[in-house]
């Protein structure tokens, strides 16, 4: 493996890790506030569809992005209604949202475009184009640093940089602001927050709304930046890998970045190589694909550093008994 | 505080939730510019109007009975087994091993072997998440989701690299010998002189599913284990205080649950495809969640809910055939049923409860 190949693999790692990172940070807000969310997949899917559909209809990727965020927010609102207001089972609500998105995207796609659930191919202003960072061309010939800057760091779409920037932003919001403190407290001990006169419902809805917005970004990235249009079931389990990454990261923003990059790398490797020959043993591609899930089970089991979820996670808050 | 009558809780609440789900589905059909009444007519004639339609409806229902029971028994223990998909995948592996391992002289022996192995494989796949939940406190929902994906990757590997016969292109196992083929309803009812359409996939597994319904009922309400499972599900603390071991109950409930999911493969793999394919489960593991919720985790309820979903599946296929409505409409209906009977249960239950209390007071 030469240097150019490594750069290429890392480059595709960044591209593949971005939707994971956005969805993972999305899940972080909801779960840290005590609302489990296994509907990340569904929200991403419907956002991917809405973005591609709106971008195809208007020719503007920014309107597409807005539509994607809106669609994802609607499902997030439904999740909030079921799990916060009506105190339903959050996991069941998540399952329902995944199916709803999977059915509706094909139903509406077929109705609007008649392409068997796909949207028309997007081009030009209907897609997020790669951004070339300043001096990328002039630095390129420099050995080692040149390719790293011009190929790996430069040349991604705006959402990639947004996703990366969201990591420190989320860390700051969660650990350095009043809202973040309250959000984390609501996930650990909602009764205490309630006693302090802060609305548990309000904080949880706010967290679920942030989850909706970030899932919207993740979905929009999939259909308008990574691919040129929506295809049925295009999230293909990415929402669940993001969930796995969230657990792997122990519900922390910076760890989430690392976990998503790791899982993105595994995906990039499994796309590029069918099987890896280590000399003494062949690693089949299916193993590389299953590795994120296996690692998550191992970390959940607490064999390598235990992942402890927010204490009030999954439980609806009942004021006064 | 008064309470709702038992029948209202068991029948009225799920029925109302179901009606809401169907009304919204009708609106969805209207929104995509089709006629909901016409759609319902096509579904009913296609799925229930002939023995041919029934052959498919019952075939799908058989799958959903197994996966529905699997989710239901876990619910009784307060566990949410979302891993039916993976457990059924492994069950399929068990069926393939049973059918390809020995030259069976008669289908009944092959059926026995595949029932045992599919249940064992399914249970084994549920054992790890169960153990991790019981011993290490890892959330069972997350681990079973992860195990679904791991099962898919494992099966993919085995079919591509190990079980695929030489020279075959598609990732599937060899065809099972003809002696292992299960009799379908046409053959079976023919023994009694009852006419039934030829060439439908409904087969003898349906009766295995019915036996499973009775067995699950007996386990839950007529054995000590069932009593322990129910008390553990109702209140973990009280159960522990009563000397019930949480590890033991979690393991047993999940093993039975996994075994039931695994049994589903007898119907699809041995009863229909006659070889192991890449995606023979096709989401039936997830539909089990809707079926168990609608059936209120009772085997009788599960049976009727499974029939309903069998009807929806076959009806949906007919819709896709005769109208412009895609099959995915069924996914939307399924989502709405899960949402209203599962997550938004209180939205229906609480107003209904008030209504009953008000009318109860008026009557005094």
Automatic annotation (TrEMBL), chain A:
Lipid bilayer topology: Multi-pass membrane protein
Localisation: Cell membrane
Keywords assigned: Cell membrane, Membrane, Transmembrane, Transmembrane helix
Transmembrane segments: 12-30, 45-78, 90-113, 158-175, 205-228, 240-266, 278-304
This protein's record includes keyword Cytoplasm: no
InterPro entries attached to this UniProt entry: ABC_transp_permease
Superkingdom per UniProt: Bacteria
GO annotations of cellular component type: plasma membrane
One Gene Ontology MF term: transmembrane transporter activity
Protein name: Nucleoside ABC transporter membrane protein
Biological classification of the source: Bacteria, Pseudomonadati, Pseudomonadota, Alphaproteobacteria, Rhodobacterales
From TrEMBL, chain B:
InterPro entries: ABC_transp_permease (IPR001851)
Keyword Membrane in record: yes
Transmembrane intervals: 12-33, 53-75, 87-104, 110-128, 140-160, 202-220, 240-264, 276-295, 302-323, 329-348
Alphabetical list of Pfam families matching this protein: BPD_transp_2 (PF02653)
Predominant location: membrane
Residues in coiled coil: none
CDD domains xrefs: TM_PBP1_transp_TpRbsC_like
Listed name of the protein: Nucleoside ABC transporter membrane protein
């Amino acid at each position: 493996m030469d240097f150019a190949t490594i750069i290429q693999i890392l480059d595709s790692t960044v591209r593949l890790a971005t939707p994971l990172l956005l969805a993972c940070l999305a899940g972080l807000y909801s779960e840290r506030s005590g609302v489990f969310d296994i509907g990340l997949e569904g929200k991403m899917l419907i956002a991917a569809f809405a973005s591609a559909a709106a971008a195809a209809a208007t020719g503007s990727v920014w309107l597409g992005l807005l539509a994607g965020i809106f669609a994802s927010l609607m499902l997030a609102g439904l999740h909030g209604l079921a799990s916060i207001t009506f105190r339903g089972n959050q996991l069941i609500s998540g399952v329902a949202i995944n199916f709803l998105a999977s059915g509706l995207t094909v139903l509406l796609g077929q109705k609007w475009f008649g392409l068997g659930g796909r949207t028309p191919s997007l081009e030009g202003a209907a897609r997020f184009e790669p951004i070339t960072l300043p001096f990328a061309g002039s630095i390129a010939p420099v050995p080692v640093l040149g390719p790293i800057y011009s190929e790996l760091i430069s040349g991604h779409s705006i959402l990639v940089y947004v996703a990366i920037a969201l990591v420190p932003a989320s860390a700051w919001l969660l650990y350095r602001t009043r809202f973040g403190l309250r959000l984390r407290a609501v996930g650990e001990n909602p009764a205490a927050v309630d006693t302090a006169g802060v609305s548990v419902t309000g904080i949880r809805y706010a967290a679920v709304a942030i989850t909706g917005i970030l899932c919207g970004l993740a979905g929009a990235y999939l259909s308008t930046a990574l691919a040129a249009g929506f295809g049925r079931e295009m999230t293909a389990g990415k929402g669940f890998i993001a969930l796995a990454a969230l657990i792997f990261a122990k519900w922390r923003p910076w760890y989430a970045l690392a976990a998503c990059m790791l899982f993105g790398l595994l995906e990039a490797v499994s796309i590029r190589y069918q099987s890896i020959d280590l000399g003494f043993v062949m690693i089949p591609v299916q193993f590389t694909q299953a590795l994120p899930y296996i690692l998550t089970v191992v970390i959940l089991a607490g064999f390598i550093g235990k992942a402890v979820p927010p204490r009030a996670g999954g439980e609806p808050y009942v004021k006064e008994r | 505080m008064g309470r709702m009558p038992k029948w209202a809780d068991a029948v009225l609440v799920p029925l109302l939730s179901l009606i809401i789900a169907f009304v919204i589905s009708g609106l969805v059909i209207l929104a995509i510019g089709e006629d909901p009444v016409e759609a319902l007519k096509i579904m009913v004639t296609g799925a229930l109007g002939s023995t041919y339609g029934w052959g498919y409806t019952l075939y799908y229902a058989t799958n959903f009975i197994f996966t529905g029971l699997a989710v239901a028994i876990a619910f009784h223990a307060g566990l949410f087994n979302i891993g039916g998909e993976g457990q059924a995948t492994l069950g399929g592996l068990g069926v393939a091993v049973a059918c390809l391992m020995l030259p069976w002289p008669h289908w009944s022996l092959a059926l026995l072997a595949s029932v045992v192995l599919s249940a064992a494989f399914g249970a084994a796949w549920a054992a790890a998440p169960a153990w991790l939940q019981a011993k290490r406190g890892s959330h069972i929902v997350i681990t079973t989701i992860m195990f679904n994906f791991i099962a898919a990757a494992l099966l993919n590997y085995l079919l591509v690299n190990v079980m695929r016969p030489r020279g075959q292109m598609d990732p599937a196992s060899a065809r099972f010998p003809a002696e292992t083929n299960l009799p379908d309803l046409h053959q079976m009812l023919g023994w009694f002189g009852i006419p039934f359409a030829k060439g439908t996939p409904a087969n003898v597994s349906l009766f295995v599913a019915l036996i499973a319904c009775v067995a699950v009922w007996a386990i839950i309400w007529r054995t000590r284990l069932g009593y322990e499972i129910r008390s553990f599900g109702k209140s973990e603390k009280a159960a522990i205080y009563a000397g019930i071991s949480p590890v033991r109950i979690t393991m047993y409930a999940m093993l039975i649950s996994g075994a039931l999911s695994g049994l589903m493969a007898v119907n699809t793999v041995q009863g229909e495809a006659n070889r192991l394919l890449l995606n023979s489960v096709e989401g039936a593991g997830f539909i089990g969640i809707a079926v168990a919720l609608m059936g209120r985790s009772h085997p009788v309820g599960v049976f009727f809910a499974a029939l309903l979903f069998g009807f929806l599946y076959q009806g949906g296929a007919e819709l896709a055939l005769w109208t412009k409505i895609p099959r995915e409409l069924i996914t939307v209906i399924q989502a709405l049923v899960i949402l209203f009977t599962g997550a938004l249960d209180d939205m229906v239950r609480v107003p209904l409860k008030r209504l009953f209390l008000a009318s109860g007071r008026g009557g005094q």
